[in-house]
Request: fold
Amino acid sequence: MAHRWQNDLTHKDITPEPLFWNRRKILAGLGGVGLGAIGGGMAQAEASPLEPNTWEEVTSYNNYYEFGTGKTDPSEYAGQLTTSPWSVEIDGLVDRPGSYGFEQILSEMTLEERIYRFRCVEAWSMVIPWQGFELSDLLALAGVQAGAKYVAFETLLRRDEMPGTRYPVLDWPYREGLRLDEAMHPLTIMATGIFGKPLPNQNGAPLRLVVPWKYGFKSIKSIVKITLTDQEPPTSWNMANAREYGFYSNVNPTVDHPRWSQATERRIGGGLFARREPTLMFNGYEEEVASLYAGMDLTKNY
Ligand code: MTE
Reply:
């Protein structure tokens, strides 16, 4: 049964129980994917416990280029974005194409909290308690047809509310894509909240993708369009610089960005004792997702 969003729920109300439960889920390899995951998951969790970053860190150090390229631009300028009413156009190879209202989507989905590591291609990372639902559940609402192989996503482009889109930093609207099996993976979620509250605009309100084993730029914000297709879709960062940003963008400490190493990362908010931590293959979700790429050369498919 679908859980309705409760706006009066604060993070305090749902802690410590769900937090504890989620930690255990993470320890067990997340999503009950299987007992085989426990060993690897445990070792990782001990090495770097998933202590969430603070609300302040998660909402004031952002990448959302539609509002400017500075880390504080989104928190400064995204407040003016109108996020209600909101609808998502789902089209392409689906049985029930159409415009899906955000409220309608919420009423159909089961919301849950998951704490995921989030790793940016610029080699910083955060740990964020997300609320949302599995992307596969949303795709099921539209009915994926047999010929579909990829999912393409588009962000809203509303120039008068998005000052950053005056500059040709990227070919707007922001676009991203996943292979269908990546999109259907239980770790892939559509987030609608953080810390038990609706998503702040700077984090991609009212709904954004979160793919925890990929670099942060795959996690496209404020989605207005989802297209099921049989072709690998163009993606903004690949269009901007194909040598630096591939379609897959899996977190991989052994494949460097052409201009910098991807072997280590800096936890945002680490404070006085901050030191760089080794980056984990697939951002620590190797047990769960490595099989998606069996037989692929990850230095070519970066
Ligand atoms: N989505 C849109 N529409 N525009 C963007 O500029 N930046 C991406 C991704 N999604 C971006 C986007 C990048 S580079 C990262 S690291 C994450 O959003 C940042 O998400 P956060 O600000 O919630 O941490």
